[in-house]
Design goal:
The complex is a heterodimer of chains A (116) and B (110). By secondary structure, chain A is an all-beta fold. Chain A is built from no helices and eleven strands. In chain A, the strands form two sheets. In chain A, strands 2, 4, 5, 6, 9, 10 and 11 form a seven-stranded mixed beta sheet that branches. A four-stranded antiparallel beta sheet of chain A has the order 1-3-8-7, with no helix packed on it. Chain B is built from no helices and eleven strands. The mean pLDDT of chain B is 95. Classes of the chains: A mainly beta (116), B mainly beta (110).
Chain lengths: 116, 110
């Protein structure tokens, strides 16, 4: 149980284009999903907290107009990287927390983004 | 001062031995504690969580919590080469966001 999927697992795009990443909780309902970014050999960095039916809360320094988050249902959150640039190339990982209120976060497998 | 501290390692452990990983936290009000394993190039996967003082065992893994001393540890018994990974200690803050330690890299040598 508690499986989280992400799609796509890999994406290569040209600078200036937008990329959408999906995060789904497959066997549970998630009122809260989190989006992280991880650069090579660095720690996970929380980008934003996504709550179903409301606006996402972004961490300090994360541009909300560049990283658009939508959490339209209890099983799906999307992250759109708008006008991607090479410095946005990273490993993007989502996690989901059950609607039961428990604090456990289940992580998706991650999406590698390479912007050329 | 970082809120969650871990030794970054690497912690070199002979195959079959016990790996001992430590994590300290600064918020005395923290109630729950999580250990994740992250293989290189992969996302974190949950190993176990602990809420109460004392030991909690799950297979070859044992989590130990001491709230008075504000530390939580993870023991890996009979370490295998497949246990070579980075182990992350995570403590939720009052908003439910995880505060992660830097992670301890474990290398199990045959």
């Amino acid at each position: 149980g508690a499986v989280v999927s992400q799609h796509p697992s890999w994406v290569i795009c040209k600078s200036g284009t937008s990329v959408k990443i999906e995060c789904r909780s497959l066997d549970f309902q998630a009122t809260t999903m989190f989006w992280y970014r991880q650069f090579p050999k660095q720690s996970l960095m929380l980008m934003a907290t996504s709550n179903e039916g409301s606006k996402a809360t972004y961490e300090q320094g994360v541009e909300k107009d560049k990283f658009l988050i939508n959490h339209a249902s209890l099983t799906l959150s999307t992250l759109t990287v708008t006008s991607a640039h090479p410095e946005d190339s990273s490993f993007y990982i989502c996690s989901a927390r059950e609607a039961t209120g428990r604090e456990t976060q289940y992580f998706g497998p991650g999406t590698r983004l390479l912007v050329l | 001062q970082k809120e969650v501290e871990q030794n970054s390692g690497p912690l070199s452990v002979p195959e079959g031995a016990i790996a001992s990983l430590n994590c300290t936290y600064s918020d005395r009000g923290s109630q729950s504690f999580f250990w994740y394993r992250q293989y290189s190039g992969k996302s974190p996967e949950l190993i176990m969580f602990i809420y109460s003082n004392g030991d909690k065992e799950d297979g070859r893994f044992t989590a130990q919590l001491n709230k008075a001393s504000q530390y939580v540890s993870l023991l890996i018994r009979d370490s295998q080469p497949s246990d070579s990974a980075t182990y992350l200690c995570a403590v939720p803050d009052s908003w439910g966001k995880f505060q992660f330690g830097a992670g301890t890299q474990v290398v199990v040598t045959p």
